[in-house]
Amino acid sequence: MSKVRVATIWLDGCSGCHMSFLDMDERLIELAELIDVVYSPYVDAKEFPTNVDLTIVEGALSTDHDLKMIKKIRKNSKKILALGDCAITGNISALKNLFGTEAVLKKGYFDLVDFNESGEYPSKMVPKLLDKVIPLNEAVDIDFFVPGCPTPADAIYEVIKGILENREVDISKLTRFGK
Amino acid sequence: MIKDKVRVKTFKIDDVAVTGRSDSTILEVAKEHGIHIPTLCYLEGLSCVGACRMCIVEIKGSSKLIPSCTAKIKEDMEVITNSSRLIKHRKMILSMIFAERTHTCSVCVSNGHCELQSQATDIGLEHSLVPYIHKGFDVDASHKEYVYDPNRCILCTRCVRVCSEVEGAHALDILGRGISAKIIHDMDEPWSTSESCTSCGKCVQVCPTGALFEKGASATEMVKKKSIVTNLIQARKNK
Ligand code: SF4
Ligand code: SF4
Ligand code: SF4
């Protein structure tokens, strides 16, 4: 049987959800028998591949690059799993929405610095911040939502197994917002 | 005026035959019979305002959904508390409550002890069905013991009612409408300068979310003790 092609990506999150993924410990060996990780911070693939069965996305959408990526992911993946509160609610990443992008940039690049040679916000090499940080489902359709901050390893394992075996899993028994 | 005589009425909740005093609400009779209807703004002993709409039920023969905490019982009515239609609507109600303010559970002092959070878990809501608004409000941390964070307030008015109906201070009220509505102290003054607040803390203990909390409390310590308030109400009734 050919292995299921799985990608994982880290958008605007703290990587805590990816750490939780590793926290599955020896269960990773079991999963490795069933899946091929074709793109991820764990592997060295530069381009997001085509024909992915499942993409697991950590983090909210904060920049124009995030937005471009999630659209590409949607186009290239059969299923998308939103992993963790940032991907599902915006969470910590979206706290900046209370103050607005302009205020946050000003704080970071003017108020709290001793030195800013150009007197401008950086515009080269770094992606442009969106006006508002949004969860994934406000930009594209999402197939699975697994909340938690970080999502507990047991929940990630149960959900992935459920998806591989094509069976429904009651997520509310395994995790919740903020867990 | 001659008072209406209180009689007993018989009707059905989820196909179970039940009886209740004619002046009871559907929610009260359901509770007496151990039938669970989810609630958020309701608190035993306080007046019922039907603000959150989590307790909506269906009545056979009517297409309307009605809040069971304010609806009086009727002879022979048939109440449904848990249809898929009700669950769909409750999920939408919860989504709108979550989306209106900024309930970042992971950095909330009520994380793990929040009634809004537990409702989402109970009903299986793992993402909001509507876009987040993230309206920003200033936090009032002026009081020496308590903090009010309007960003986490669900406008259930439990605090307003407990302060007025149990403490008798009526230091709290609502200012504004819709998405701009917020709880205020006196004439929208900082909590510390409120002349009517007695600092009794009842509002903090009945608040279902992290909108009102004790200063310096950690997420494991900030477990609300709403039973203190309900016991007090009961003790006064028994006098
Ligand atoms: S949900 Fe929590 S752990 Fe996961 S990326 Fe966001 S902040 Fe980090
Ligand atoms: S502390 Fe007591 S008096 Fe003050 S606002 Fe809260 S309930 Fe009212
Ligand atoms: S502060 Fe708390 S108790 Fe008062 S209305 Fe808001 S959520 Fe309800």
List keywords for this structure.
heterodimer, A: 179 residues, alpha/beta, Rossmann fold, 5-stranded parallel beta sheet, 7 strands, 21% strand, globular, B: 239 residues, alpha+beta, Ubiquitin-like (UB roll), Alpha-Beta Plaits, 2 domains, 5-stranded mixed beta sheet, two-stranded antiparallel sheet, 6 helices, binds iron/sulfur cluster
Task: Explain how this protein is built.
Chain A has 179 residues and is an alpha/beta fold. Chain A is 31% helix and 21% strand. Chain A contains 6 helices and 7 strands; from the N terminus they run E-H-H-E-E-E-H-E-H-H-E-E-H. Chain A has a 5-stranded parallel β-sheet with strand order 2-1-3-5-7, with helices on both faces. The radius of gyration of chain A is 18 Å and the shape is globular. The N and C termini of chain A lie far apart (36 Å). Chain B has helices at residues 26-32, 84-100, 115-123, 158-167, 202-206, 226-238, and strands at residues 8-13, 16-21, 56-59, 65-67, 78-80, 146-148, 172-175, 182-185, 212-214. The mean pLDDT of chain B is 95. In chain B, helix 2 (84-100) runs antiparallel to helix 3 (115-123). Chain B folds into 2 domains: 8-82, Ubiquitin-like (UB roll), CATH 3.10.20; 104-238, 2-Layer Sandwich (Alpha-Beta Plaits). In chain B, the strands form 3 sheets. Chain B has a 5-stranded mixed β-sheet with strand order 2-1-5-3-4, with helices on one face. A two-stranded antiparallel ribbon of chain B has the order 6-9. Chain B has a two-stranded antiparallel ribbon with strand order 7-8. At the A-B interface, helix 4 of A face helix 3 of B. The structure holds iron/sulfur cluster (SF4) (3 copies). Residues 13-14, 16-17, 58-59, 84-86, 91-92, 149-150 of chain A line the site of one iron/sulfur cluster. The site of one iron/sulfur cluster (SF4) has 13 residues of chain A, from helix 1 and helix 4. Chain B: Residues 85-124 form the 4Fe-4S His(Cys)3-ligated-type domain.
